[in-house]
Amino acid sequence: MDLLLYSVLSFTYILIVHFGIGLKKDLELYLFTSFFVLCGVLGYFIHSYETGLVVAIILTLVFW
Fold first, then answer.
1. How far apart are CA 28 and CA 1, in angstroms?
2. Mean per-residue pLDDT, 12-40
C-alpha cells in the first residue's frame, strides 16, 4: 500500500462515517481526521500503511 491508496481509503472511510452514519459535531470530524494523519505518519515510519490504517480505524471506533 502506498501513500495515495492510504489517502483514498482514509478519505472514503471518513466520508462514509460523516455522511452515512451522521457525525454531528465538527470536533469529532477533526479528531477523526487527526487520527488518520497521525496514523499515516506512524505507517510511514514503520513502513506499513496497512498498520496505520488499522490503528486509525480502531482509534476512531474507540473514541467515537
1. 27
2. 83
